[in-house]
Amino acid sequence: MLAWHWWLIAALLLLLVELLGTGFFAFAFGLAALAAMVVAWLDVGVTWQWFTFALAAALLAPLLKRLFRRFAPSQRTSFLAGESHQQLGEIVQLASGDFRLKLEGDLFLVRSASGAPLSVGDRVQIRRFDGITAIID
After folding, report:
1. Distances (CA, A) of 6 to 25, 48, 71, 81
2. In the predicted model, is pLDDT for residue 61 greater than 80?
3. Residue ranges per domain, the chain?
4. How far, rounded to the nearest angstrom, does the alpha carbon of residue 40 sit from its chain's CA centroid?
5. How far apart are CA 43 and CA 37, in angstroms?
6. Which CATH architecture group holds 82-136?
7. In this prediction, what percent of the chain has a pLDDT beyond 90?
């Protein structure tokens, strides 16, 4: 089996791993493996193949991550902050006594927009998120 075959197999495996939702890192490494495959196909030495892979991965990973963040907003944020969806969560109290908002099985820091006290079991409407803190009505 030729070297470019191995790079092609690695690229396909990495692109398949990306389907698991790795945030474009496996995709970047898959594209880098394709670049190394082209270099191997040109019958260049193994050192240059690995150099091409490393350089392409180092350039593509941050670039694709930046593009992903810019053009694909968080599904949770866009869903919760959308005007067409009114999302409700439940106030729960941890063993430490701190309050959290339980939403879709996840716990978030919570703060009332009006400063009203929180009560365990209340179903509250989420106004927005400030970082990881849910601001409720």
Report:
1. 20, 15, 33, 45
2. yes
3. 3-71, 82-136
4. 32
5. 10
6. Beta Barrel (2.40)
7. 47
Give the integer Cα–Cα distance in Å for 37 and 7.
5
- Kindly report the pTM of this predicted structure: 0.54
- DSSP assigned state of 116: P
Q: Predicted confidence band at 53 (pLDDT cuts at 50, 70, 90)?
A: very high
Query: Residues for the chain: how many in total?
Result: 137
Q: Residue 133: in which H helix or E strand, if any?
A: strand 133-136
Provide mean pLDDT across the span 94-122: 88
Structure tokens at 92: 């729960």
113 Cβ neighbours under 8 A, 6+ residues apart? 127, 135, 136, 137
Report which DSSP code applies to 123: E
Q: Residue 112: CA atoms inside 13 Å, Cβ hemisphere, count?
A: 12
Q: Determine the pLDDT at residue 131.
A: 85
- C-alpha span between 40 and 7 (Å, rounded): 8
92, 104 contact by CB (below 8 A): no
86-105 residue pLDDT tens: 678 899 999 998 899 998 88
Q: What Rg, from alpha-carbon coordinates, does the chain have?
A: 23
